[in-house]
């Protein structure tokens, strides 16, 4: 009997890595160099297309046809790659029909929105697969739901069902060549299209990796690796060589946008290493996400903007809590923090006007603060010196709490002080010790 082939890697490419002809060619070169490893590719929509399709769907609900620019975007990408410009006509015809129906009834359902959004990934999977074929690599575009990726019916934020794994594994084994699978989309038990939430392709990639027992899941980005902070806020930020699943999960949970927060769990469950790599420097090691972290305390700083802090007080705290939970469920919002401080319920959520209104009605005494941001120092529970330094530079910390593991200090502060706070903390926690 031939020996078991080594486990296949999954390579996930985000929208920015598919933005134009040269970008798709870089993706082709990355896969060509690894073809002997029998890679599985998972793709996002071309950069900006999901947001554009979302607007197109909204416009249709208001009676307007705004599909033109999205069609042109894809045709021009096909032209840049010297592929058949008519290749996606059938998909665009289907999309035009869906949009026509939305325009006719002037209303957009969750199902219709997901159907419209799905075209981003369905188009990019076809573009990438045909480009790979054009350079002599055998590849097949696959819609994730045709592989058996089944979700609940929660449109816009569907959860994949665990029974999908066996089907995905068996179905993938039947394909020859490089499967190029749509990220972000799935279908419910009745075959209705769903989407997994914005930036959900990372999660698709790790779920598929878990299903097939992948050797590793590589997330290809425009910037290489996970950094100690967002370099746009903190120019001194550095790339982390490695981190543990728990550290990566904590960093993403607090808003580090580098990976989708839930995408770490399938990796951790299956003990599959993840790698965050740079499409422009494919030789670089990037960041390894695995069972063992770097063995250092401080991991990184994650920031989140546009949050509000509510403090609610009533004579019956239980009743207040029930009302707050009902308001969150009604708005489809998950609390970033919900805790009690004495008789006061403290709640941190993304800013939303309708939620703010519901909260004000939930208790007799409510204070709301908006235009806030959070800075989470992951792995830095005891950051006394850094906190003192924040006070010295005049950052007005409005609330803070300790969560984790790994021990993480979350600070809530005015959004206009975010860059100052992030740079100060970074300098205290990461620039005084070698990492
Ligand atoms: N295309 C989807 C989005 O932009 C999913 C993804 O990129 O991961 O949200
Ligand atoms: Mg994207």
Ligands bound to this protein structure? aspartic acid, magnesium ion
Query: Taking Cα atoms only, what radius of gyration do you get, to the nearest Å?
Result: 23 Å
Whole-number average pLDDT? 95
What is the N-to-C order of secondary-structure elements (H for helix, E for strand)?
EHEHHHHEHHEEEHEEHHEEEHEEHEHEEH
CATH class bucket of the largest domain: Alpha Beta
Number of domains: 2
Q: What's the CATH architecture of the largest domain?
A: 3-Layer(aba) Sandwich
Structural class: alpha/beta
Strand line-up in the sheet with most strands: 3-4-2-1-7-9-10-8
Tally of contiguous helical segments: 14
Q: Find the CATH topology of the largest domain.
A: Carbamate kinase
Using DSSP, what is the number of strands? Answer: 16
- Helix amount: 25-40%
Q: Work out the strand percent.
A: 15-25%
Q: Which segments are poorly predicted (pLDDT under 50) over 5 or more consecutive residues? A: none
Which term fits the overall shape?
globular
Question: Main beta sheet, described?
Answer: 8 strands, mixed
